[in-house]
Amino acid sequence: MATMHLDSDSKADLHAEAEKLIGRYESPLETVKALMAYNYELETQILTLAHRHPGLVAISFDPTPPVLG
Question: Span 37-53, mean pLDDT?
C-alpha cells in the first residue's frame, strides 16, 4: 500500500471550495461550522472508500498533537 497525496489541481479545487464556503457566511462561527461540515463529508467519503476497497486506501493516525501558531 502506498501513501497518496493530492496533486496541485486537487488541492486548488479543495481550496476554492473552502473559499466559496467562507465567502457565503458573514459570521466567523457560521463559517467554521460550514467548513467543519464540509470536512466531515470529505472524511466520510474517504472512510467509505477505505471500507469498500481496503487495498486502495489505508487509514492511519498521527500521534503528534496539533500545534496552533
Answer: 85
